[in-house]
Specification:
It is a single chain. With 363 residues, the chain is of the alpha/beta class. It folds into two domains: 10-152 and 310-328, Rossmann fold, CATH 3.40.50.1400; 156-303, Rossmann fold, CATH 3.40.50.1400. Helices cover 43% and strands 12% of the residues. A four-stranded parallel beta sheet has the order 2-1-3-4, sandwiched between helices. A four-stranded parallel beta sheet has the order 6-5-7-8, sandwiched between helices. α5 (120-138) links the parallel β3 (108-113) and β4. α1 (25-33) crosses α2 (40-51), α4 crosses α5 and α6 packs antiparallel against α11 (311-328). The radius of gyration is 20 Å and the shape is globular. The structure holds coproporphyrin III and fe (ii) ion.
């Protein structure tokens, strides 16, 4: 594989965004939930999570660090393409990033998101954001061509980075016997209807869960082999929202910790493989809330760091960018189990509320 990003002029990191000051919290939450039917009570509760940290989410600083790490890796490979940044829900907004890209002379952008998995919230919604932003700047006469890296959770490099983090955390465990230790892989809960329709729409669905389960089981097997242990791994969920009447993926991490404690578990290793950085879902929902649950039921909680700016993760993301560029040039790219297309198939991970234009897909 050639070490180049041709035909792209720049890379754009597309992320969720988060508030950076107390007065930004409510405007941010209103943007996130516009038209979603999230009860006000839930918004106020989530606002409290942010105020608990002075109104500042860690996510933007983490993205600044990730961009610096990507820059360093690109420099090491002598790839001179800039790494730009745009968010869905907070400054720097995506449409402004597109205006700046165009003003700097860039015409063809390669987008990578901070979301690794397949489902409406983690893939198509970002594709809709791209369609909206491209349409907004088109009215100003700005034309850009945009491609995207496909969901990267199935990449062997993503598994390797997460495995490394889990093994490092488990080496620090004291001598708790295998049957007293639970290995909990955590991700964001989503509505079950969103999971059922995640994937190419060939009748199989559940791709969000299946990608997590595949990664969790690969990490469990490999970590057990490396550490000479026989731990059981399982997938649990955090950050449920939406009305109580709507089913979301379960079990919730807190409920599962309580059950495990009652069954004799003394240590839970919590690995947030669903997230790429220690943002609010991690520092509040796991480090604050799940930690309180664990303390209350007398279980030790060991939290594995997310991949963040781990060198194995950053290298893999740059590999994914280089491979996407090769694909755009019509060259062959490495295959691996579970690989997702860079251009999504029609009906993949549909918007269940309302069909809307989305870029980087065949529909
Ligand atoms: C799959 C998924 C990811 C992972 C993929 C990805 O990373 O994109 C993710 C990430 C994130 N979610 C985040 C924050 C929020 N998510 C919400 C609400 C929701 N998330 C959902 C799903 C996901 N969310 C869903 C189905 C909803 C229901 C409403 C809706 O369909 O939109 C709400 C509303 C209030 C609430 O009800 O919690 C907030 C504030 C932050 C920022 C953290 C920070 O500030 O550090 C990040 C990275
Ligand atoms: Fe979310």
């Amino acid at each position: 594989m050639q070490n180049t990003l041709d035909p792209y002029d720049a890379v754009l990191l597309l992320s969720f965004g988060g508030p950076e000051a107390p007065e930004e919290v409510m405007p941010f939450l209103r943007r996130v939930t516009a038209g979603r039917g999230i009860p006000d009570e839930r918004l106020e509760q989530v606002g409290e999570h942010y105020h608990h940290f002075g109104g500042r989410s860690p996510i933007n600083d983490q993205n600044r660090a990730l961009i610096a790490a990507l820059r360093a890796e690109l420099d090491a490979r002598e790839i001179e393409r800039p790494v730009l940044w745009g968010n869905r829900n907070s400054p720097p907004f995506l449409d402004d990033a597109l205006r700046e890209a165009h003003a700097a002379g860039h015409r063809r952008l390669l987008v990578i998101t901070t979301s690794a998995y397949s489902c409406y919230s983690s893939c198509r919604q970002y594709r809709e954001n791209l369609a909206d932003a491209v349409a907004a700047v088109a009215e100003e006469g700005i034309e850009l061509q945009i491609d995207k890296v496909g969901p990267y959770a199935p990449r062997p490099g993503f598994a390797a980075a997460n495995l490394g983090r889990v093994v490092d955390a488990m080496r620090a465990l004291d001598g708790a016997p295998d049957d007293e230790v639970a290995l909990l892989f955590v991700t964001h809960s989503i509505p079950t209807a969103m999971d059922e329709t995640a994937g190419p729409g060939d009748g199989e669905g559940h791709l969000y869960q299946r990608q997590h389960l595949a990664l969790a089981s690969a990490i469990t097997d490999e970590a057990n082999r490396i550490l000479g242990r026989d731990l059981t791994g399982e997938l649990v969920f955090c950050s449920r929202s939406g009305p109580p009447s709507q089913p979301w993926l379960e079990p919730d991490v807190n409920d599962r910790i309580e059950e495990l404690a009652a069954a004799g578990t003394t240590t839970v290793v919590v690995a947030p493989i669903g997230f790429v950085s220690d943002h609010m879902e991690v520092v509040y929902d796991l480090d604050t809330e799940a930690k309180e649950t664990a303390d209350r039921v007398g279980v030790e909680l060991v939290r594995v760091p997310t991949v963040g700016t781990d060198g194995r993760f950053v290298t893999d993301l740059v590999d994914a960018l280089v491979e996407r560029a090769a694909e755009a040039r019509g060259e062959a790219v490495p295959d691996y189990e579970g690989r997702r297309p860079s251009v999504c198939e029609p009906g993949c991970c549909p918007n269940l509320r309302q069909a809307r234009p989305a870029l980087c897909g065949r529909d």
